[in-house]
Specification:
By secondary structure, this protein is an alpha/beta fold. Helices cover 22% and strands 26% of the residues. The strands form 4 sheets. It has a 7-stranded parallel sheet with strand order 4-3-2-1-10-13-15.
């Protein structure tokens, strides 16, 4: 089945207001910026987003966040996104913060058909006991807090029950993909993109390099096409448009004077 869609706008045409999205990326690596921009251009709002972080440097999900299009975020890292913090503390944004490994496994479990699992991460904290502020009231008070979760003991160790995550759509970015939706990710972009793709009921992938079926060695496939419904091939300009979050330059070595 040829899953290639001509444009990003066409690929996200059925993503409506209030939809839930699993979005890949790790920092600025592997973020599906072109698909996110297409959602922005369509004016979609009230989105519930599941992603490691919510964009940075006015790119990625930060585009939708700044426009007030995101209603809820499930993630594990805020970073230096000041607008994210402002909306959260003012009560404009509902936020569920969970341990990063738990987020990864909740996405994977949802995609694998596992409704819930037990993990030791968070036992003895508000992650398990409840009370984490999901939404503030804008005056410093908590309008909505996380509920307590089931804790059970196995072989003398306590574990907390976490639910698998399924979303209406998933947006991911791959270094290479074929027309059947088989994907290959590059380095740290592999951290969350395969997991987000598994969690989506409809998964849309933007690929930097589109190849024909059979050109990717089956042993090199990171995510099989069974998890992907639509593929968008990026232009060379889109594929190479990548930002650096923090650029560090080494100080030049001191040079001796010539006498």
């Amino acid at each position: 089945m040829d899953k290639v869609v001509a444009t990003a706008l066409e690929a996200v045409a059925d993503v409506g207001d209030g939809a839930s999205l699993a979005v890949g990326g790790f920092g600025l690596s592997g973020v599906p910026n072109v698909l996110i921009q297409a959602l922005f251009e369509r004016g979609v709002a009230g989105l519930s987003v599941v992603s490691n972080n919510c964009g940075a440097m006015e790119s990625g999900l930060a585009v939708l966040l700044a426009a007030g299009r995101i209603a809820r975020v499930t993630g594990s890292y805020i970073g230096a996104n000041k607008e994210f913090a402002r909306q959260y503390l003012s009560g404009e944004l509902e936020v569920e913060m969970i341990p990063q490994g738990t987020l990864a496994e909740r996405l994977r479990a949802g995609g694998a058909g596992i409704p819930a699992f037990f993990t030791p991460a968070g036992v003895g904290t508000q992650v398990a006991e409840g009370g984490l502020p999901w939404r503030y009231d804008g005056s410093g008070g908590v309008a909505l807090a996380s509920p307590p979760k089931e804790v059970r003991e196995f072989d003398g160790t306590e574990y907390v029950l976490e639910r698998g995550i399924r979303t209406d759509f998933a947006l991911v970015r791959a270094a290479k993909g074929d027309r059947h939706g088989n994907l290959v990710f590059n380095k740290s972009s592999r951290n969350f993109n395969p997991l987000a793709a598994m969690a989506g009921r409809v998964t849309i992938a933007e690929v930097e390099e589109l190849v024909e079926p059979g050109e990717i060695d089956p042993d090199a496939v990171h995510l099989p096409g069974i998890f992907v419904q639509r593929v968008v091939a990026l232009t060379p300009e889109q594929a190479t448009d990548k930002q650096i979050e923090r650029r560090t330059v080494s100080a030049p070595e001191a040079r001796g004077t010539v006498g």
